[in-house]
Amino acid sequence: MLVKNLTKVSQLLINSKSQIRHASAFKFAPDTAPAELGETTKMNLCQSVTNAMDISLSQDKSAVVFGEDVAFGGVFRCTVGLRDKYGKDRVFNTPLAEQGIAAFGIGLAAAGATAIAEIQFADYIFPAFDQIVNEAAKFRYRSGNLFDCGKLTIRTPTGAVGHGALYHSQSVEAFFAHSPGLKVVVPRSPIQTKGLLLSSIRDPNPVIFFEPKILYRQAVENVPVKDYEIPLGKAEVLMEGSDVTIVSWGTQVHVVKEVANIVKEKLNISCEVIDLRTIVPWDYETVCNSVSKTGRLIISHEANVTMGFGAEIAAFVQKECFLNLEAPVERVAGYDIPSIPHVYEAFFMPDKWKCIEAVKRVVNF
Amino acid sequence: MNFASVFDVPCIFFCRNNGYAISTSVKDQYRGDGVAARGPAYGIVTIRVDGNDLFAVYNATKAARQIAVKESRPVLIEAMTYRLGHHSTSDDSTAYRSIDEMNSWEKEDNPIKRLRKYMENKGWWDSQRDEKAHADAQKHVMDCFHNAEQKKRARPQSMFDDIYDKLPNHLVRQRQEMVDHVKMYKKEYPLDLYEKAF
User: Looking at the DSSP assignment, which residues form a beta bridge with residue A183?
Assistant: First the structure.
């Protein structure tokens, strides 16, 4: 009865106007995997995460996957089937305590195991902040490289979904980028996710791996079946252009790709689109080379603009490329509002219209 | 709890133990004798109660209040119950627990049904009144939904309200940028759902 009523209420919510996402969000355009990676199979981003962990668990006998609700497959279904395949000693639930999850992972990694931890939402990573920033990040440094917890990878879903409101929408990568000793990764697609996650798991440093959760189902690509890595610290030029460089990561990459296409068609402005992929260590070489060529830079991210990672890129680029710049560096990012207020999401987002205006501003400066 | 205990705070900690945190049952959550066992460890007087028994919960809470107020100290109540519903509208709890388990709690130890039986035995309640109460409640909820849907949302600028007591300059600037931008792209934003923005 209660279950039935709940279903009714959820149906009602779905039908009600308040739940309809505004259409301006983004379009996912799938990539084609390099031919040399061989056979592919259709996967969404969620399945590519599962696949990367499956490969890790099968190849590395010390690898374990744990977090809240991961045993039954996870609330986003990223760990489906792994417990059946590898047993409850390698894929297991933890008590509900993010600080404990991070601490447990650090200990496992320090003892030599490959620890793949899940924090259910990036919004809930803050109870683990002390463990991540004060323990994981400094473990190698403070012991003079006697010990490290580099085998720790923390996966966590991030970003806007249209209805996540204040506690299921945040992009918190900049907090961790501010903590030396951690690597920070945000993939844009299933192909990227698999390669970057495998690199993160195998990287000898602790990595925070942010998965844009709106892409879990929406992003579908033909993903190589075999084991492959995409190097950390390397950005990717997705579209070559000559007038404006646009740097982004995660879901926002798809927004700026669309922007590049629109301004090309409507305004004949040629944009170079770069997916940063790794936030720390970030690939300033690729970005600065591009800006030296185009003379203009826009950085776009969902996270709040103040102290978002765009601020670091802007500061760095104005120093390195000062004489090449034709216009001030622009940031198109979330406003400095607790993100993301539910009913205002359409107005909060650094959407394509705001990015198009930024392109016009830097070109007409 | 430790703070309340150390500072002799007259307060009640009420733990509704419904057995689940999304899919994770208490079996994966803790060892030892549940939440109640944590109370004495902090020096807190504690009672565990049948959370599906309305009168037991009432009496335990009443006694807890008396102790808290009279003796100026905290009290812990652990009310044992069961989460009959899914965790949320995006959860399907049949993926991690059996329908038999859910049905048995729903039928055998359901706080609403237990109270209803008691009230029917007393002659205070019957199926006719029950049906009417259900229908009334449903209508009330649907009316609320309907009324809420008719209402315009607050104007987009109000997303900048209440971040601080007064809006700092950088946010005044961002708000103005947002307004200027939306004015330029009126058609691309769902302005009709909101109170007049400008």
Answer: A207
Average predicted confidence (pLDDT) for chain A: 94
Are the Cβ atoms of A95 and B30 closer than 8 angstroms? yes
Final residue before a domain boundary, out of B43, B63, B86: B86
Q: Taking CB atoms and an 8 Å limit, are B163 and A338 in contact across chains?
A: yes
Residue B130 belongs to some domain of the structure: no
Taking the C-alpha atoms of residue A106 and residue A113, their distance in angstroms, rounded to an integer, is 10
CB pairs under 8 A between A and B: 93
> How many alpha carbons fall within 13 Å on the CB side of residue B152?
12
Q: How far is B38 from chain A (nearest CA, A)?
A: 16
A204–chain B Cβ distance below 8 A for any pair: no
Flag whether pLDDT at B172 surpasses 80. Answer: yes
Domains located in chain A, CATH noted:
35-224 (3.40.50.970), 236-364 (3.40.50.920)
Whether residue B173 is predicted with pLDDT greater than 90 in this model: the reply is yes
Nearest-Cα residue of chain A relative to residue B173: A335
Q: Which of A336, A166, A359, A128 is nearest to A257 (CA)?
A: A359
| pLDDT higher than 50, residue A12 | no
Please determine, for residue A5, whether its predicted confidence score (pLDDT) is greater than 70.
no
Three-state SS at A301:
strand
A254 in Cβ contact with A281 (< 8 Å): no
Q: Does B89 sit within 8 Å of A10, measured CB to CB?
A: yes
Residue of A nearest to B186 (CA): A353
Using CB atoms, which residue from A12, A75, A357 is nearest to B22? A75
List phi, psi (to 5°) of A124.
-105, 20
Compute, in degrees rounded to 10, the torsion defined by CA atoms B150, B151, B157, B159. Answer: -100
Q: In B, which residues are within 8 Å of A1 by CB distance?
A: 106
Residues of the domain holding B68? 2-86
Q: Does the structure show a pLDDT above 90 at A188?
A: yes
Is B54 a member of any domain? yes
